[in-house]
Amino acid sequence: MRSAFVIAVWLAFAGLIGNSTCVAAQQMTPSTSSAPAATTPTAGNQYAAEGQAKAHCPSDTVVWVNLSSKVYHFSGYKDYGKTKRGAYVCEKDATAQGFRAAKTEKHP
Fold first, then answer.
1. Which of 45, 73, 78, 108 could form a Cys-Cys staple with 93, CB 3.0–4.6 A?
2. SS3 of 14, please?
3. How far is CA 90 from CA 39, 51, 102, 106, 108, in A?
4. What are the residues whose beta carbons fall under 8 Å from the beta carbon of 79, sequence distance 6 or more?
5. Cα gap 88→81, rounded to integer Å
6. Pairing mode of beta strands 62-66, 86-90
7. φ, ψ for residue 64, nearest 5 deg
8. What letter does residue 39 receive in the DSSP assignment?
9. pLDDT digits (tens, 9 = 90+) for 36-46
10. Three-state DSSP class for 64?
């Protein structure tokens, strides 16, 4: 009876080790996405996806706002869609929310 108990405990322990290894492997799998770190837009008219912003304002320029610095970037520039905390916004909404254009970028 004691050996059956030891075997049962060993199998349970082996199962726990196997599951934790599987979880660790899933957590260590690198992301293939080139998108910026996940951010939740903090105000109205801020979108996580560029397509959502384009659908909201088809006749306006879509910009990427850096929520930390309050600066927005135009498509085609290196920081567009790349900052850690940001969102896609219509340019008119960005200026209404107090954001300003990056000084080194030209309006498309």
1. 45
2. helix
3. 17, 11, 15, 16, 14
4. 64, 66, 73, 102
5. 8
6. antiparallel
7. -105, 120
8. -
9. 444 556 677 89
10. strand
